């Protein structure tokens, strides 16, 4: 029941986004949109997880070939040591960057300051500006925007331990006065798959044999 609702919800979201892209194309009137490097990186990272068929079906503002080229340029070479090192502090180790990105994705309401404080608690001293730069390089939006665009699957993963599925069924029991029908409500903890009977209610009236 829950899986079917999620699937219908995702289909509705995709249908809306496709229509929104069509409207944006009409507003552009054939003009090519201009993207910043950060926007190209963000689109390339998102597109990386999709097939060419899926991208074509979505009707993106740029072609799948362009998205692949952007990924090679902006994401694939992001940590390429062949690039000339800029003056200033050296970049943070990869495991630090990965941890910041993971925390941001799993906790969409955490801003730069919160992420910095959590990293300090975990034994990694980094600045707020460093956190912002790491997230920007990975195409991750600031906290308010991340909350707006949280995928449904991410929301479920973050709250899986606090979500329950409910359903009810009817059962007929033979008694001294004849068959009696009961409605049974069951609840399942999605994380543990543990099922509990939440209530049993006898329906009024006798069942006609």
From TrEMBL:
SUPFAM superfamilies, per database record: Homeodomain-like
Which InterPro entries does the entry link to?
A: Homeodomain-like_sf
Entry protein name: HTH-like domain-containing protein
Which species expresses this protein natively? marine sediment metagenome
Q: What is the lineage of its organism?
A: unclassified sequences, metagenomes, ecological metagenomes
């Amino acid at each position: 029941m829950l899986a079917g609702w999620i699937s219908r919800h995702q289909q509705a979201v995709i249908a809306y986004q496709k229509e929104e892209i069509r409207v944006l194309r009409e507003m552009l009137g054939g003009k090519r949109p201009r993207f910043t490097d950060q926007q190209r990186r963000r689109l390339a990272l998102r597109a990386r997880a999709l097939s060419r068929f899926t991208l074509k079906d979505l009707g993106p503002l740029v072609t799948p070939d362009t998205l692949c080229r952007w990924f090679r340029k902006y994401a694939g070479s992001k940590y390429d040591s062949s690039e000339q090192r800029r003056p200033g502090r050296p970049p943070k180790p990869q495991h630090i960057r990965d941890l910041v990105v993971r925390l941001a994705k799993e906790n969409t309401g955490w801003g730069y300051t919160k992420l910095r404080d959590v990293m300090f608690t975990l034994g990694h001293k980094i600045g707020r500006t460093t956190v912002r730069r790491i997230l920007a390089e990975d195409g991750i939006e600031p906290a308010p925007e991340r909350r707006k665009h949280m995928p449904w699957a991410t929301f479920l993963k973050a709250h899986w331990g606090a979500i329950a599925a409910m359903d009810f069924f009817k059962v007929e029991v033979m008694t001294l006065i004849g068959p009696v029908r009961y409605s049974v409500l069951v609840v399942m903890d999605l994380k543990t798959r543990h099922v509990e009977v939440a209530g049993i209610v006898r329906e009024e009236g006798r069942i006609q044999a």
